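Q: Convert this sequence to structure tokens.
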Amino acid sequence: MRRRSIIGFVLVLTVAGCLIPNPPELALKQTPTVTSSQFEQTIVVSGTESVVPSGYTGSRYFLRSVIHKATGILAHQIYVDHYYDGDWKFWQSANDENAQPLNVRVLKREVISCHYGCFHEEVFGIDVADSTLRSHPTGFKVKVYAKDASTMVLELTGVQIGAQLRAISEASVAK
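A:
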């Protein structure tokens, strides 16, 4: 009789675990995409994607560059979309490899669901100077810090940076 109770309990836990939705399985982009419209003042270049360390399926990061059409002014961010369960992390600051602080812009914080614990999504951008991208053709790393003392290191490879800079160059000529 005790064995049936244990099996029943395990079954309930298994079914309960299925109630916490995972974000949709997304294939990582392997090439940059350029978004532009006659109705917009900017061109957006979204780079190749990498998986966020210790994030759930769908957690990813990539370079995102914005080109102002009239002025040619260029701005870059490491765009991070992080899904996780448990308590809020509140990603809030970042440093480059030289321990220099980088600006973090919170774009979205959302509770996806709460059943037996909560599932969260945090989306944020880390500002990166154009000179930083161009002076690190082989890549660089950024360490991100959360209010709950969590950290993660995001690595941008030379391949990602090169592809991004080529896409920006092509988009600038085509505007």
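The domain at 2-174 is CATH 2.60.40 (Immunoglobulin-like).
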